[in-house]
Amino acid sequence: MGGQSRLKKIFSELFTKSRTAVNIGVIGGSISCGQGTFAGETFLDIFTGWMNRTFPSTSIRKRNGCFAATPSSFMAVCYKNRVDVDVDILLVEYVLNDGFQNAPSYERLLRIILNLPHHPAIILVHVPSHGLAFDIRSHDNRQFDETIEDRYSVIAQYYGVTALSYRDALYQLSRFNADTAAKTLQLKWSDVMWDDGIHPSMKGHHVIADMLVHIAQVTALEAMMLPFTADEDDDAKALLPYPLLPGNYESPLSQCLFGDAFKAIAVEAQGWEWLQDGRLPFHAPPSLFPPSSSTSSSSTSSPSSPSSSSSKAVVRQTNKKVGFVTTKPGSVLKITVDSDLSLKRRREHARIQKQNAAAKAGIGIEVTEPKKKGNNHQGSELSSAKMDSSIAIVNLLMLKSYAHMGKVKVTCENCKCPEMVFNAHDDSRKVSQLGLFTLYPSFHQQCVLIIESLAETTSGEHRLRISGVVVEDRQIDGSTAYNMTSISNWSDLSGDH
């Protein structure tokens, strides 16, 4: 459905000269952005370079839609600004950023991109979870199965999506190389990971690109030996099945306000300042790969060694650090959002219900409610039937980190919402990410969120940065709603990615 048949179609069209262009994209976190590599070169650049050399008469376009320090729950709503509508091959990298709680949002993201007009071939790029590639002597080291990758692989299998695994390719080669008996393997995690043990190094990006090339070569060979059939074409365009997680349909309506668009909806900012500090270099942290027992800690690596070269890597960040910031308790920020994105839809739904009720009474003609645009999946008729069972979800995009951070209290005007207190401080890991802090306000086109910084703090400081807001209108399905809306459980996040 979403992988092999779609990719085979692309190569079949390239061989028959019926295709003259291929548009390749990637969405993910700072790994996709190139953190830990030289000049920000990524596996996307390496792979598209191979495609250019292999098909020199074809126009190979690329777009890097990465957004550092964000999870899949962010991209599931903000994808329109990061993915070309006519993308042909889309790479998806979120294992590191998603922790263990984002499977519902990850599935919704896959459903959205599988439904894009050009029926893109989706390839999941699974990278190691936080700690998996740490030296085995590290306290934070994780085992082979301590990752959300396996859960995401099940989702991939359900939708027929191709997935590659950095862990599966390298774990046995590098995991035990600290042991003297295993040194003959001549590979360590530090050979393919940056000094932080989280981001692949330049060599690591080449490994990922090699796996992408292998997938492309195998598929191209199949396209040459076994011509693309009508049945395969039907499979490439097939309707999506019901969600694997019950009721976990993608949001039909959403709004993503970031940067200047977010700044524009602020109606009051007492004690908050707008920060836009541009693109900043990232300085390499201390290495998480301790020297071996046979090497002096004061010794230096040779200029050609992976450890020395990776420490010199400078990232040209692709995402500006923007948002309203404060360090003062009592600062008040007010923003106005439309929490009633479904107003027109619900009014039309009510009108049709009223007309059909009249038709059953012998007045007028009964009409069929149209299926909403973009719901190309089995069971989409259920969406109309449950159109009055939707909820508004508003997510504040707020920096969450292990030090310096404070708390905010959020209340509402015009709309109704329970008072919420959000803590931006999380010292469970030394990481920083944009967190999605979730509110459930009532429907209102002028819903005012009042965000106040509190004197109470668990870090001893009161730093806060709010970079945007995400609004969704999500349909719910009774008991199957369970934790679909809990897209901001950040109890196990990993890395400043």
- Helices and strands, in order, run as HEHHEHEHEHEHHHHEHEEHEEHHEEEEEE
Average pLDDT works out at 81
Low-confidence stretches: 278-318, 379-389, 478-497
The helix tally amounts to 14
Count of DSSP strands? 16
The main β sheet shows up as: 6 strands, antiparallel
* Ends apart, CA distance between termini: 30 Å
Radius of gyration: 24 Å
Beta strand %: 15-25%
- Proportion in helices: 25-40%
Structural class: alpha+beta
Shape: globular
Can you characterise this structure?
The chain has 497 residues and is α+β, with helices and mostly antiparallel strands. 27% of the residues lie in helices and 21% in strands. Strands 6, 8, 9, 11, 14 and 16 form a 6-stranded antiparallel sheet that branches. A 5-stranded parallel sheet has the order 2-1-3-4-5, sandwiched between helices. Helix 1 packs across helix 10, helix 3 runs parallel beside helix 9 and helix 4 packs parallel to helix 5.
Strand and helix map with partners:
Layout: H1 4-15, E1 21-28, H2 30-33, H3 43-54, E2 59-64, H4 72-78, E3 89-93, H5 103-114, E4 121-126, H6 149-159, E5 162-165, H7 166-174, H8 189-192, H9 202-225, H10 230-236, E6 253-258, H11 260-263, E7 266-270, E8 273-276, H12 306-311, E9 322-326, E10 332-337, H13 343-360, H14 381-385, E11 390-401, E12 407-413, E13 420-423, E14 432-439, E15 447-453, E16 464-475
Parallel strand pairs: 1-2, 1-3, 3-4, 4-5
Antiparallel strand pairs: 6-16, 7-10, 8-9, 9-16, 10-15, 11-14, 11-16, 12-13, 12-15
Helix pairs in contact: 1-9, 1-10, 3-9, 4-5
